[in-house]
Design a protein that fits this description.
single chain, 86 residues, mainly alpha, 73% helix, flat
C-alpha cells in the first residue's frame, strides 16, 4: 500500500494506487450516506405515506415504460405530460 497521506507517491503506479484508494473511500462514504439517508427517511415517514409514495413511483415507472423511456432517458416534455395528467 503506497503512502498517500504522508508524502507524494514516488511513481505513476503509486499515484494511480493512491487515486484508486481515494475513489474507493469516496464511494464507500457515499454509499454509507445513502443508506443512512434512506434509513432516516423510512423512520420519518408515516407508513401510509410511504406506501402511497411507492405506489406513485411504480405508476410513474409503468407510464414511462409504456413510452419506452425511464426517468433518466425520457424528455422533459414527457415528464411534463405525466405531471399535468396527475
Amino acid at each position: 500500500m503506497p503512502q498517500c497521506a504522508d508524502r507524494r507517491p514516488a511513481s505513476a503506479e503509486a499515484t494511480a494506487a493512491c487515486q484508486s484508494v481515494s475513489l474507493q473511500a469516496a464511494q464507500q462514504t457515499f454509499t454509507a450516506g445513502l443508506k443512512a439517508a434512506a434509513a432516516f427517511m423510512a423512520q420519518a415517514v408515516q407508513p401510509a405515506t410511504a406506501a402511497a409514495r411507492e405506489r406513485h413511483a411504480a405508476e410513474l415507472q409503468q407510464w414511462l415504460a409504456s413510452r419506452h423511456c425511464s426517468l433518466t432517458t425520457c424528455s422533459p416534455e414527457a415528464l411534463l405530460a405525466y405531471v399535468t395528467m396527475h
